[in-house]
Write a structure and sequence with these properties.
The protein is of the alpha+beta class. It contains 12 helices and 16 strands. The protein has a 6-stranded mixed sheet with strand order 8-9-10-11-12-13, with helices on one face. Strands 1-2-3-5-6 form a 5-stranded mixed sheet. Helix 1 (2-24) runs antiparallel to helix 4.
């Protein structure tokens, strides 16, 4: 058992050493080794300036301002078929595809104009090698660069032959290797399985995410993203961290459904997600170890609930023989017995209180007529209150609103009212000059208004008034 572990540690340390050499020479900037080496080769061949790692639409720019998207692939048996997706072909001018053999020797470099691409899905086939192929003999690398890339390729092949990795995604493969060892999982045969990465004997599915975290000038962020979690159908998420030597520095497991905001999840979800358990203690200061994980096969062997444990402990204490009790100190034994008696008395008292309340409730519920005698007066009082309130509001709605009194109208010549009993015989009225104004006293002030204004204020129709008074109105 020690030999395989020792061999694994040796291979991983050698791989870390080779990858550090690539970082030092500026060949790679991240742990996406194949893609980074391909970008380095393309930038050296076409004399490009690499863009920031956060730029997604393109990877490099030439001196004339043309934008390049660079893709790389390790191929075997000179098979140059490469299916690309999510190409933002409207955002770059040329697509560069670099093919390597298993030792990262450059087999072909293709330069495809973006106007030849009309979809985000694009298939690079062997038929396109001749039209878009570049002369790879013009690629110039230093001896140090060639040697560093060759050593890295050999170390990568050693890990692959040992069964530690199985694709070009080295960090992810190493994390999956550790997770399968600790949880006894079986990796999916399809390397590109989108819903999950592995299953266990019970059929539970697992998504495994790995990040390499160590103290370095190029690794200062504590919010390392865990990409592509939103479309996962796995039952559990396993998060693995690796140190500089690609050894496991922490491992956590949590239900996938408990991950909050899976589109923007990062490493610190191991500190905050509900139900997270720790498999390998954390060696990272800002990631907590948390509660220990119990293997799925041992879950049935867990102890019973605390209540049953207390009952078991009480029964065991009662069965202690006199011979065994000699082991305990007298004071300690008295203390234990006293605590047991107090707990028992409290339990009995609580049960008595519950039984009394239940009896009182049962008495009032079962006594004939008790409920009616208690509730009927309350209902009558409530009904009276409702009727009084209803009558009050009804009375308020019926009260007429008192209009403001009209101003008192005075005129020098008093006009007698028409007598209704004169049988339409009109009395002699004094002559009224309608050109004169009428004095109105309102709020201590005297206002002069015309007869027409008086009629308008009294809301009297002129035609009706004329019908009533006849020609005298003139």
């Amino acid at each position: 058992m020690e030999k395989p572990v020792k061999k694994r540690e040796t291979l991983l340390k050698e791989f870390a050493k080779c990858s550090d050499k690539l970082f030092t020479l500026g060949i790679i900037r991240t742990d996406s080794f194949t893609g980074e080496i391909g970008e380095f080769i393309a930038s050296r061949y076409f004399k490009l300036d690499l863009a920031d790692r956060s730029t997604k639409a393109y990877d490099a720019v030439c001196s004339k301002g043309y934008k390049y998207q660079i893709k790389s692939k390790v191929t075997t048996d000179n098979h140059f078929n490469y299916r690309l997706s999510n190409l933002k072909y409207q955002d770059f001018d040329f697509l560069v595809v670099v093919f390597f053999d298993s030792h990262y020797n450059t087999l072909a470099i293709l330069k495809i104009p973006s106007d030849k691409i009309n979809s985000e899905q694009y298939l690079v086939s062997s038929a396109q090698i001749n039209p878009f192929s570049q002369d790879i003999t013009k690629l110039k690398l230093s001896q140090k660069e060639q040697h560093a890339i060759g050593n890295f390729a050999q170390s990568y092949l050693d890990l692959q032959n040992a069964g530690i990795i199985r694709s070009c995604k080295v960090v992810g493969d190493i994390g999956e290797y550790y997770a399968c060892k600790h949880l006894k999982l079986q990796l999916c045969d399809n390397k590109n399985e989108k819903g999950f990465d592995a299953v266990n004997q019970k059929g539970l599915t697992f998504e495994i995410k790995t990040r390499r975290v160590y103290e370095s000038g190029r690794r200062t962020s504590e919010t390392r993203r865990l990409n592509n979690l939103s479309d996962k159908s796995a039952d559990y998420l396993v998060v693995v961290t690796l140190n500089h030597a690609f050894e496991c520095s922490g491992m956590w497991i949590m239900p996938m459904k408990n991950v909050v905001n899976p589109k923007s999840a990062h490493l610190k979800i191991v500190n905050t997600t509900a139900g997270v358990k720790n498999i390998v203690p954390s060696q990272i200061s800002w990631l907590t170890t948390g509660e220990k994980f119990v293997p799925f096969n041992d879950m049935k062997k867990q102890k019973s609930s605390p209540l049953s444990q207390n009952n078991k402990r009480a029964k065991t204490t009662k069965k202690v023989s006199s011979k065994d009790s000699q082991i305990l100190d007298d004071d300690a034994l008295k203390k234990i017995v006293s605590q047991m008696n107090i707990a028992q008395n409290n339990n009995l008292k609580a049960q008595e209180d519950i039984s009394i309340e239940q009896e009182e409730f049962s008495y009032w519920r079962n006594t004939p007529g008790t409920s009616l005698f208690i509730k009927l007066p309350i209902y009558i009082v409530l009904l009276i209150i409702v009727l009084v309130l209803f009558g009050y509001f009804l009375d308020q709605t019926k009260k007429p609103t008192t209009p403001e009194p009209w101003p008192k109208i005075t005129q020098e010549d008093n006009v007698p009212l028409r007598d209704k009993n004169t049988d339409n015989q009109l009395p002699a009225y004094p002559k009224i000059n309608f050109d004169n104004t009428i004095k109105i006293k309102s709020k201590g002030k005297t206002i002069k208004v015309s007869p027409e204004q008086v009629l308008e204020q009294m809301d009297i129709d002129y035609d009706d008034l004329r019908d009533y008074l006849g020609d005298e109105l003139r």
